[in-house]
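Researcher: Checking consistency across runs. Here is Serine/threonine-protein phosphatase PGAM5, mitochondrial again:
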Amino acid sequence: RREPLALINLKKKNEETGEEELASRLDHCKAKATRHIFLIRHSQYNLDGRADKDRTLTPLGREQAELTGRRLASLGLKFDQIIHSSMTRATETTEIISKYLPGVKKISTDLLREGAPIEPDPPVSHWKPEAVQYYEDGARIEAAFRNFIHRADAKQEEDSYEIFVCHANVIRYIVCRALQFPPEGWLRMSLNNGSITHLVIRPNGRVALRALGDTGFMPPEKITRT
């Protein structure tokens, strides 16, 4: 999942074949396929809910998820899987989207749950979590980035298309990390509910951002950021 040379134990290099064997081993570790990562922010949800189970999608949020599902289906891509945050609003968004993508397996993970990834720079006055939250959430969200955002496995022959349904803070942090931008700038971006962010990871490890928070497929009156 990293630079092929970093995956090889150079101490085991055969002294007789030398560079030829090294080149062969490098080829064995090189990615061949491109990964397309679609990061979906959950739809609008009930902000008055005290516990996560109470923070269900609003009627408008359910409409937004329907629109997002239709949009993803209209792309005509063969999606490999949907990985989603285990929080209620992300799970409900996933269930609605998946209706439009029959047969695509769904996987729930705690790694993609919402949180405070890293202290933003510049700071904002309206959102100041306790410092300990950055340590707790930040390590988990960084683990999500390292676990999910990487070049294709060397054994993967064809390009893949994967959907991740999660949260604004998680998506913004992942975008900064993937593009090698200072992650402290994550709060300078804003994402609408049900929006689509599209990252492309090439076999050489280079990442391109094709779309950030796209909701152009929604009528203006359906767009929210809550």
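Researcher: Does this match what you'd expect to see?
Model: One thing to look at in this run: The radius of gyration is 20 Å.
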